[in-house]
Write a structure and sequence with these properties.
single chain; 376 residues; alpha+beta; Beta-lactamase; 7-stranded antiparallel β-sheet; 3-stranded antiparallel β-sheet; 12 strands
């Protein structure tokens, strides 16, 4: 029987069982899950291996790349500016970023994936991903792919650069510095954009597995009109290397600030942030209510399937539920990582792992979610 370490209330033993089954039969190599209910941690568990050679065990403080889980955390930095009146949801982006050709889009449009800037059409050279000024300059020159506010399209890689540049211009510091200063460190949460050199000895190697298939292109499905196909291709493949395939374990990836893609975390750190959202430590109630209200619910022009977004957060939807309650919000990461909160049940949840699984309906995170709610 696979060993699962950590602590777990007896009532939530099913969560331990689900993690063990993930490791034994659902493809997890190394993973951790943390669950808090009404602010109290009821499960903090980990198991498996963290090294590519299988030699190193996953430990209590192991961190790993959680990909798009970081999008919600980047949005949180912008929402905190809204919360204190330094930024307004309905102001145009051009007020903060005059050079932006798509500046008619509002902050609300951006956070709801409605800004029309889901991709950069002009091909960027190898290495541009790690040049913040080069990518944001390319975004500034990009005509919107659709009129801002008129449609929803997942801003796969541009979201982090767009939100990060707005935060930088308003707060006067890079997004990851703002996040570290205002969110992660006050909570004692092991979450970073990139990963500081001092923390890298406890990093888990990321092993792509099923995630590698199609990771440099758009999702499958019916053929798209040429413009839609071009949008999807650019959204995923430009700048080169933005998916992290082949580079996620590199020093360049760890050094970079890529808010859409290179957040690194423990499950405990992710759950701590969502618990702090529920108890009002990070956002006022009015701002959180605005952030988790439905901003987009329609077929996504980039993903080619239904999306449901608040402002920076993915919202629960029948096709991919975050538990049974209607107000749950959070964000998935490529391969199955997840952070979410359920205001109705008082649940905060974090799951991280180092072996990519199915992108859309991942049986590993679903098994853990089901186990949590079965125990409530």
């Amino acid at each position: 029987m696979t060993d699962v370490a950590g602590t777990c209330d007896a009532r939530f033993a099913s969560v331990r069982d689900a993690l063990r089954e993930n490791l034994e039969s659902r493809g997890d190599v190394g993973a951790a899950v943390c669950v808090a209910v009404e602010g109290r941690v009821v499960a903090d568990l980990w198991g498996g291996r963290r090294g590519a050679d299988g030699a190193a065990a996953w430990e209590r403080d192991t961190v790993v790349c959680v990909f798009s889980v970081g999008k919600a955390l980047a949005a949180l930095c912008a929402l905190r500016l809204v919360d204190r009146g330094a930024l307004a949801l309905d102001e145009p982006l051009s007020r903060r970023w005059p050079e932006l050709r798509g500046g008619d889009a509002t902050v609300r449009d951006l956070l709801g994936h409605r800004a029309g800037l889901a991709a950069i059409r002009r091909p960027l050279p190898d290495g541009a991903l790690y040049d913040w000024k080069a990518v944001t300059a390319a975004l500034a020159g990009q005509e919107p792919w659709w009129p801002p506010g008129a449609a929803c399209g997942y801003h796969v890689h541009t979201f982090g650069f767009l939100v990060g540049e707005v935060v930088r211009r308003v707060a006067g510091a890079p997004l990851r510095a703002v996040f570290d200063r205002e969110v992660a460190r006050p909570l004692g949460a092991d979450v970073w954009f990139g990963l500081p050199p001092a923390r890298r000895a406890r990093r888990a190697d990321y092993l792509f597995g099923e995630l590698t298939a199609g990771a440099t292109g758009a999702p499958g499905g019916a053929p798209s009109p040429p413009e839609r196909a071009e949008l999807r291709r650019c959204a995923y493949a430009n700048p080169p290397g933005a998916t992290g395939v082949g580079t996620v374990n590199s020093e360049a990836w760890l050094d970079a600030e890529l808010p859409s893609a290179n957040a690194h975390a423990t499950a405990r750190g992710v759950a701590a942030i969502y618990a702090a959202l529920l108890d009002g430590r990070l956002l006022g109630a009015g701002t959180l209510d605005a952030a988790i209200a439905e901003a987009s619910v329609e077929e996504d022009l980039v993903l080619g399937r239904p999306s449901r977004f608040g402002l920076g957060f993915q919202l629960t939807q029948p096709e991919r539920p975050l538990g049974p309650n209607p107000r749950s919000f959070g964000h998935f990461g490529a391969g199955g990582s997840l952070g979410f909160a359920d205001p109705d049940a008082g649940v905060a949840f974090g799951y991280v792992m180092n072996s990519g699984g199915p992108r859309w309906r991942n049986p590993r995170n679903r098994a853990l979610i089901d186990a949590v709610y079965a125990a409530l």
